[in-house]
Amino acid sequence: MSAPLDRYKICAVRFRQDFPNAKALLCVDSGARKAGVAWFEWLDSPDQATLLAAATISTKTDAELSDAVHLWADAHAQGRNFYSAVEVPKKRANKRRFHKDLDRLLQFIRDCEEWLDGWTLRLFPEQWKAQVGTTLRSGGKAPHHRRVRQALSKSEAFIFDEAGVDGRDAVGIGLYALGRTGRGGIRCPEPDP
User: Fold this and answer.
1) What pLDDT score does 39 carry?
2) I need a surface site. Which of 63, 91, 99, 154 has the fewest CB within 10 A?
3) Rounded Cα distance, 101 and 119, in Å
4) Three-state secondary-structure class, residue 178
């Protein structure tokens, strides 16, 4: 079993590549009644991945969300094996008033694990986006999304623009997991030929 190439300091693929026949990555920005999803595929190596789809999925109840994400993922996977990455909220002692809301997100993540057979990569928000992109700060997510968009090709940027706020976060998670961006959505330099 090979270890991850990097956890979050340098630009490299950040999930274990134990399944050579997996040629795709599902990324999920967890939520309650809505979640962002992004789908990346590659031919030879994850560091050559291309964004093929992204969306914000909304449901009427929390219980329906995992099934909706499952249907979306199955439509893109078409029976192929894939890796998966998810943003996992962190309960903080000084933010206890939000713990009940975070429990809803954690339940969604557990519900998805049932059909995924576990997540390949779990990321805390500060791992992939640092302190930018929060809805609690002035400016909101727009500066972070601008950085993430700069790391995309023209065709990928079109998909990103149409994905909705949570879908854009899922794209950011994917770019980070694939080593195309660092913390805070900072674009990684192009490798030397």
Assistant:
1) 98
2) 154
3) 21
4) coil
3-state SS, 140-155, equals: CCHHHHHHHHHCCCHH
Q: pLDDT by residue (tens digit) across 83-142?
A: 999 999 876 665 555 556 778 888 899 999 999 988 999 988 888 876 654 555 545 677
H-state helical runs in 42-132: 62-77, 99-116, 125-129
Cβ neighbours around 111 below 10 Å, total:
17
Angle at the Cα of 145 (from 71 to 86), degrees rounded to 5?
Answer: 40
Short-list 177, 158, 148, CA closest to 40: 177
Largest Cα span, the chain: 51
Neighbours of 105 (CB within 10 A): 20
Residue with tokens 């601008």: 146
The Cα 27–Cα 148 span in angstroms is 14
Domain boundaries, the chain: 24-185
Which of 30-39, 49-58, 128-137 tops mean pLDDT?
Answer: 49-58
- Alpha-carbon distance 135 to 46, whole Å? 30
Q: Which residue, 160, 164, 161, 162, is CA-closest to 174?
A: 160
- CATH classification of 24-185, choosing from 3.60.10.10, 3.30.420.10, 3.40.1670.10, 3.30.428.10? 3.30.420.10
Helix then strand then coil, % of the chain, to nearest 5: 40, 15, 40
